[in-house]
Amino acid sequence: MGKKLGELNSEDKQGKPNHVIRISDCDINQERLACMKRRTLESPRLLNNSSGRSSCSIFRVPQRFIETNGRIYEPNVVSIGPYHRGKPQLQMIEEHKWRFLGSLLSRTESKGLTLEDYVRDAKRLEQKARECYSETISLNSDEFAEMMVLDGCFIIEVFRIVGKLVTPDPDDPILSTFWLFTFLLRDFLRLENQLPFFVLQSLFDLSKMPEEEKYQTGGGHSPSLAMLALGFFNHSTLDRPHEVIERFRNYQPKHLLDLLRSTYTELTQEERKGKPVTHLIEPVTKLRRSGIKLKQRISSDNFLDVSFRSGVLEMPAITIDDFTSSFFANCVAFEQCHRHCSNHITSYATLLDCLINTYKDVEFLCDAKIVENYFGTEGEVARLWNNLGKDTAFDVERSYLSSLFGEVNDYYCSGWHVQWAIFKHTYFSSPWSFLSAVSAVILLVLTMIQTFYSAYQYIFPSKNKGN
Question: What's the predicted TM-score (pTM) here?
């Protein structure tokens, strides 16, 4: 019996196995087929092919993070870059960007610069700038250049005014309105709200005026763009010392978020790698019961400089408010998306996620002067850190805190000091438990004395009778 179409031909004419499947004739939509072939040749748009390269550093925040942490990744008043461009709720500042650009143009026309020069400079960097975004940008060349000039010059003008290189109008509605200024601080550090730093640097160099040289810093030079940016962010609760700002004078980060992040991560020593770490550490409440002490580290202003020695976990003080919570969330998102950077902020966030389980843990950290809370209730602070640690990919072996995790775990799980600490915590943590423990000891001693005399009288009855 012959084989039907659609069956597997098991042998060819020479009797050898043949695994070709013959499919019976059917109608194929050729137009649809052509469309499928075109799709196989198209590059992805929402996460393009260049997203895994080191040059790509400005990402859409993963939806899972947004579902967990809410709008902490979205700009409140100003759009920078293409991702939030044109949103209705951001149009107020969009109008003022043109005013800031006009002010810059009127100041630099004495150098012979026109708007055409700035647009030409932006177009020169267009392709390199596009490769910095994980999402394919639909703007055409002219629109993309306009965006870079408008947004970049706005940022630079704000930095120059705050850095006192440019004398502002004292009644400027953008910089004299306190609530608006605080939102600018946060919006300039949103991961989705970034321009490549080399674009800002090029526009800054192009627009630099000779009179700016008279504004010299401690090093005898006019401030660089990186220094002006860090000086601007010093109006927040993450205040960097002058020596740190000077050290980052010529630093070339990926963008503004990476710049402020780097002033902490680049100055943190990598810890010595110990034995492999299999699990993270326990919350504050359990660590204290095992005899581990937590105290503020006075010798450092870098919150990443955490140490553990002789049963004492030392942590520099950190202020938790709307600014720092936004900074941490966007840094964690950046480190999760950009595999070419360290995971320092993620490591620190994971450490606090481990230490903080309930509001009681936050209360102790506040009492120990490790956490200064301007964010909300202790319960809200606990939820903040628990959410930041949720659904993040964290490799403890790759963490700068890997040896610290291991040392804390070893101390927590071993030795007589742990049993002694648990005993002290159980019986001497309050006056009532202390009195109960003392009463129990006295009762035990009296019982032992009574038992001793009863046994003595039983063993030596004649001596007792003689007496």
Answer: 0.83
